[in-house]
Amino acid sequence: MIAKSQLRKQIAAIRKSLSEETVSLNSRHIVERILKLEPFQKAETIALYMAFGGEVELSPLFS
Asked: Staple 27 to which of 1, 36, 44, 57, CB 3.0 to 4.6 Å?
């Protein structure tokens, strides 16, 4: 079994290897799917994060 810290390093390396275009395209697809979710639409409060190091960009959901 792989250690959590090693797994995190592997995932971070994969994220860093993705092109900016790929991250942007995938982020848009994810945001579109989130916006269609009924629990998201009905929620009064949503917790989000600022993307860092190639993470999914959720800033379109901030408004």
From this structure: 57
